[in-house]
Amino acid sequence: MFSWDLILDIVLDALLDTLKLLPFLFAAYLLMEAAEHRLSEKMEARLQSMGKLGPLVGALLGCVPQCGFSSAASNFYAAGLISRGTLLAVFLSTSDEAVPLMIGSPEGRRMIPLLLLSKVTVGIAAGFAVDLILRKRGSQRQLFDLCENCGCDEESGILHPALWHTGHILLFIFGINLLLNGAIELLGQERIASILLSGSALQPFAAALVGLIPNCAASVTLTQLFLAGSLSFGACLAGLCSNAGLGLAVLLRMNRSKRENLQIVVTLYLVSALFGLALQLLL
User: Fold this and answer.
1) Per-domain residue ranges for the chain?
2) Neighbours of 102 (CB within 10 A)
3) Which pLDDT value is given to residue 10?
4) What mean pLDDT is reported for the chain?
5) Which of 71, 77, 104, 142 is deepest in the core (most CB within 10 A)?
């Protein structure tokens, strides 16, 4: 049963998780507004052409322990500034609360190098593979007007629309955090462990599905289950690879193509689950 103290804790946790994203989102929107209002067509083309090395850069930046860069990357992708492979590389390599939690455990500390190396490796490989496939298909994305139908205009500069977009998406993210934190409190760790098929060879597929929950709490739960011995390292890795913090929530909110969003989610899930399964069999 929910008590008032528990509800207050859920609200405060959701608020803190949301506020952590504020500097990342504001910086991302400032950059995108600058690109939209200031860059010439030549500069825009040059920015997009740099995307060939995007998966490498994205995977390296994504492995830094934080959950804000994946949200920024989703905005960049929605605006056409980075490739789909770069976005997936960021999602797959993103490391948030998992590393700090593992530092507090001897077994966890031992696995941190393998965890980060694995996430960066699969991020780079999957990112380049996706971009290669899309280039062969001749798929291209165009920049779109971030301020379309939002009330911003050319005379408002970049600060006002950046603040407007940041506040708008933060409210959406707060609602997501509130719902998911409440659901996790209601289910509890033991029930989640049973859902994750503890002891089953199919555990990476269940863990990767849980990892798709767009909330940093999912990575915390997966890491705690691994440290408690309820989750294999391969399954934990599968869940942590598919978990991009709130990046998926931002993508679904900001990117207009539902077909693209579905393809990204399915690709993220399959790559994470299969990679986790392969590592589970090897270890």
Assistant:
1) 4-142+149-282
2) 22
3) 82
4) 79
5) 71
